[in-house]
Amino acid sequence: MKVTVKCFTGMRPCAPDGQSKFALFLEEGAQVAQLLDRLNVPADAGAIIAVNGARAERDKRLQDGDTIVLFTPMEGG
Fold this sequence. Notes:
By secondary structure, the protein is mostly beta strands. The chain is built from one helix and five strands.
């Protein structure tokens, strides 16, 4: 399945080539935790995760076409 990932500044070091938005292919039924592992997001990064605009936890199952936003607690407005 294909998902879109958006990384704000604090999470960009985990993105391929430091991109702010990119597509990622995952196995069907993958969870947020697998996405974070794939991007090598450190467990202590304090990543805040949103899937399709709603806050999500690591055990959230992803679906084809989902948009995942990753940011750190110090970001936002």
